[in-house]
Amino acid sequence: MSENCPVDPASHTTRPRRAAGPRTARATDPRFDEILASANDAIISIDEAQTITLFNRGAERIFGYSAADMIGQPLDRLIPERFVARHAGQVRDFSATPEASRMMAQRGEIYGRRRDGSEFPAEASISKFRGPDGLVFTVILRDITDRRAAEQMLRGAHDELEKRVRERTAELEERNAQLQQEIHERRRAEKQLAEQARELARSNADLEQFASVASHDLQEPLRMVASYTQLLNRRYRSRLDADADEFMGFIVDGALRMQRLINDLLAFSRVGSRGKSFQPVDLGTIVAAALGSLRAAIEESGAHIRVGALPVVHGDPTQMEQLLQNLIGNAIKFRKGPEPQVHIDARREDTLWRIDVCDDGIGIDPRFSERIFVIFQRLHTAAEYPGTGIGLAICKKIVERHGGHIDVRSTPGQGACFSFTLPDREEPPHA
């Protein structure tokens, strides 16, 4: 058998019919017979005429022939027909070389042919020695069908893995491109936010300028209009007709409402810029001061105010009083009837204090729970409930300056509960 050609060596042998010299001696050795019998691989010997002289049990199992069938038969029976001619030439070439052995896969794949005509891939080595009757060639052959199948499965798994790696790489590249786009968009958004922040800063500066103008240039003439209108009303009331008296009342009322509006706008604009430095503030003392300012409204309405235990926090005492006065005043203003009930309590939530100002008044539709904190947003007409629509916007701005949050829980007709948080630390982030 030769390397180039698919050699289909044979199966097991009992004992060689034609063997000479040392081969004959070894073949009769019981130990040699046991080695041949126990070998899993096919061991086949042929003479120079390529006639089989040895065919072990491994060869019988692999090729499907018995040793009796194959001893004395040409090796061609074990070789696929397309390889027979080439194999004979390769055996002759090997016999002329000084090599004693070689692997038969060096010059191409090796195939064997079974008794049923089926072919199988094989791995084989061939050796030679010179006996009394000439050269003896021995082939040790192994059926590698299972190995080839495993290799094919491994190649398939490897190809599938490479495919998945390529797909995953493509996905990662696509995701990376998306991330790069997101980073670009985020940077652009940050740039826009920075520009908006600069615009907001300019707007705030303009608002401060407006506050200054309103404080000096608007309030003074407005006070003059209101004062002189009231003076005219007192002095000439009896000399004017009913329409004139009514018109005079409209003027006075409008001037006073304008003053309140300007004062509230000034208060709103100065929350962040004119606030005092933060310090320990006893909210119990602050609530007492707010109730003192609201004494007239409390007595007029018959309101019952219940104040629970309140903590000491860090903040602007003036703004804390303004915040609580606005919330308590709203609870009294938006009552359903006489003797409204107002409860003020506090509770600890992790690193925050939550302050609740709750009432049993007309309540607020949950749809408007965010809108009411926007400046100039009113849910009722001035005729129904007086005010400028700025009070809750001021409350929100004060709370945010102190690093907290304000919201409302309410059901129409069942009262409202305004809650705001204050960090339990000395210096809030926006102080």
When the domains are counted, the total is: 3
The low-confidence runs, each spanning 5 or more residues with pLDDT under 50, are 1-27, 427-431
Mind telling me the CATH class of the largest domain?
Answer: Alpha Beta
Mean pLDDT: 80
CATH fold-type name of the largest domain = Heat Shock Protein 90
**Can you summarize the main beta sheet?**
6 strands, antiparallel
Short description:
With 431 residues, this protein is of the alpha+beta class.
Explain what this protein looks like in three dimensions.
- The chain is an alpha+beta fold.
- The chain folds into three domains: 21-143, 2-Layer Sandwich (Beta-Lactamase); 174-269; 279-423, Histidine kinase-like ATPase, C-terminal domain (Heat Shock Protein 90), CATH 3.30.565.10.
- Helices cover 48% and strands 19% of the residues.
- The protein is built from eleven helices and 13 strands.
- Strands 1, 2, 3, 4, 5 and 6 form a six-stranded antiparallel β-sheet that branches.
- The longest helix is centred in the middle third of the chain and has 92 residues, at 145-236.
- The radius of gyration is 53 Å and the shape is rod-shaped.
